[in-house]
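queue> pop job 88
queue> type: inverse folding (structure -> sequence)
queue> payload:
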């Protein structure tokens, strides 16, 4: 037994594990924390004294004179209810006019006004960015909410004094409406704002995220086309659709719009596209990056595993590459070849984001903890275990673990799992390191540990200079120990986009706040409320018009609940 223990501990990496503290909590040192609020942002233009009367007229059933204004919440009763009625647009191809692609969408500016004008969130909405420091010496920034990041402060400096930034967060993700046959899918587009605290944004019950469009999921793009030509046309269809949906943000971002808050204060707001939340295939689609390359930097796809990010991609450079290829190409295939030489997909001739003010689409692409880390990194780590032990042995080790609080007990191991969800990947990551001790070499254990450290540190709800340093140390330890996987024949290279994406996490946290501000997991949850529940309420024939009507009714009920809460709150305050 003593010899066994000696051999066992020889396989554990030498040295103590890095002491990573819990996420820095600003509330534990509030007396020392310093906040530098932007001096010119968030000016109140005037007070709208009629805001509460409009809400009362909207839902109360009578105006101040007692005359009946509305008897129900039917369509077209007023501006507020009519905002929820999506309208449709049609796209068609010149050589295939019979097949039309219908988009159901509504004005994103109305969505912005609704989110900022919700009285339930009036005391929580933030109009002024700030730089938060751990102490008066200002040597360590604190990053948590989006308004503590560098991006908001930088954009605010470009706007006229007194204006406000409304950081628009867009998320798109195609989803299956049913697990049965029929290939029923929906392509929702979600919009929320960085002005709202992240704790409010990620709760469906708070109604802080609005569905602004259902994109077309039709695959009819021309029967006579080749597979490559169909792929190109589908990519351009996506960009043309997003242009129709988001085009109102261009002028509003440049000139600003007056928005009345739930407390009656009127601000001049500039809605700016800040973050685009998507998984890797859609990140490439949105940024026009060649699949297999990084959508944020120009590193060559053969050097993605070297541990060094390339020069930043810029929206201006990508547009110039597309424009030059379009001007010098004689065919679609020639256009694609010229684009791919510069790591551009070659499937899009007119990107939807070209004219958006104060926006760089490559910078707007944010880390995706769910798909990049759990469905990417952890998935690879589990797969690599099969090279140092058999599936049966790994399952036996997993089954032998004692049940304990906070840990899932996989009584049948992992080999029988199918369609593994993100939650299951999280549970697997918690016990993975202990399952390979005694079988994997110490350097492989160190490699695994550094990647798991990175995953957990990247999800801190608050970061400062020290915690971002721990994140970088974990990344460096991974690159220092990954060679063992090549020596064991597990990998030939590490040119994997999801592994390379870890290079950009620290920079994105500095720009937009912590990763829970823009995780795709939040929007995956909204599929239930905005797509799947609506589909179940239809007769399963020509679903989208019925889904938009159902959604309109649900939002009106939610707005009425908000009115009731605000009414009771104001009445209680008045009676005091």
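queue> result:
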């Amino acid at each position: 037994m003593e010899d066994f223990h000696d051999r066992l501990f020889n396989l554990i990496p030498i040295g103590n594990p890095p002491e990573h503290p819990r996420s820095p909590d600003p509330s534990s040192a509030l007396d020392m924390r310093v906040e530098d609020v932007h001096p010119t942002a968030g000016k109140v233009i005037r007070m709208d004294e009629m805001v509460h009367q409009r809400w009362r007229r909207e839902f109360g059933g009578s105006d101040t004179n007692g005359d009946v204004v509305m008897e129900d919440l039917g369509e077209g009763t007023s501006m507020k209810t009519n905002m929820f009625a999506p309208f449709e647009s049609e796209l068609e191809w010149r050589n295939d006019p019979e097949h039309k692609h219908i988009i159901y969408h509504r004005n994103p500016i109305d969505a912005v006004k609704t989110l900022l004008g919700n009285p339930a969130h009036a005391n929580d909405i933030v109009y002024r960015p700030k730089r938060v420091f751990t102490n008066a010496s200002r040597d360590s920034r604190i990053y948590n909410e989006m308004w503590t990041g560098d991006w908001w402060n930088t954009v605010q400096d470009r706007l006229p004094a007194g204006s406000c930034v409304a950081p628009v967060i867009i998320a798109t993700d195609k989803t299956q409406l049913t697990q049965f046959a029929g290939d029923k899918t929906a392509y929702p587009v979600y919009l929320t704002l960085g002005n709202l605290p992240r704790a409010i944004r990620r709760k469906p019950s708070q109604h802080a995220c609005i569905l602004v469009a259902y994109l077309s999921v039709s695959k009819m793009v021309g029967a006579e086309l080749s597979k490559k030509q169909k792929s190109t046309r589908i990519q351009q269809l996506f960009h043309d659709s997003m242009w129709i949906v988001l085009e109102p943000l261009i002028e509003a971002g440049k000139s600003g719009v007056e928005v009345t808050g739930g407390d009656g204060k009127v601000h001049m707001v500039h809605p700016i596209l800040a973050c685009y939340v998507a998984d890797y295939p859609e990140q490439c689609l949105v940024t026009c990056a060649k699949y297999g390359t990084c959508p944020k930097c120009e590193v060559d796809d053969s050097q993605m595993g070297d541990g060094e990010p390339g020069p930043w991609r810029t929206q201006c450079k990508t547009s110039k590459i597309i424009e030059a290829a379009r001007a010098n190409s004689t065919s679609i295939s020639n256009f694609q070849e010229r684009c791919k030489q510069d790591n551009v997909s070659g499937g899009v001739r007119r990107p939807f984001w070209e004219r958006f003010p104060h926006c760089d689409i490559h910078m707007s692409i944010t880390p995706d903890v769910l798909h990049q880390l759990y469905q990417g990194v952890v998935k690879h780590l589990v797969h690599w275990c099969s090279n140092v032990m058999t599936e049966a042995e790994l399952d036996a080790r997993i089954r032998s673990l004692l049940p304990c609080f906070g840990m899932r007990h996989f009584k049948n191991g992992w080999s029988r799992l199918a369609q593994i969800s993100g939650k299951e990947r999280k549970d697997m990551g918690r016990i993975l390191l202990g399952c390979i001790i005694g079988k994997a070499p110490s350097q492989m254990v160190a490699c695994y540990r550094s990647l798991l450290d990175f995953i957990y540190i990247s999800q801190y709800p608050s970061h400062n200079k020290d915690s971002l340093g721990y994140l970088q140390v974990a990344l460096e330890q991974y690159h220092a120990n990954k060679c063992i996987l090549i020596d064991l024949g597990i990998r030939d290279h590490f040119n994997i986009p999801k592994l390379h994406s870890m290079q950009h996490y620290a920079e994105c946290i500095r720009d937009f706040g912590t990763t829970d501000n823009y995780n795709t997991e939040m929007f995956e949850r909204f599929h239930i409320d905005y797509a799947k529940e609506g589909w179940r309420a239809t007769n399963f024939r020509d679903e989208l018009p019925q889904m938009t009507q159902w959604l309109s009714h649900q939002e009106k009920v939610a707005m009425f609940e908000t009115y009731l809460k605000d009414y009771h709150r104001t009445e209680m305050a008045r009676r005091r």
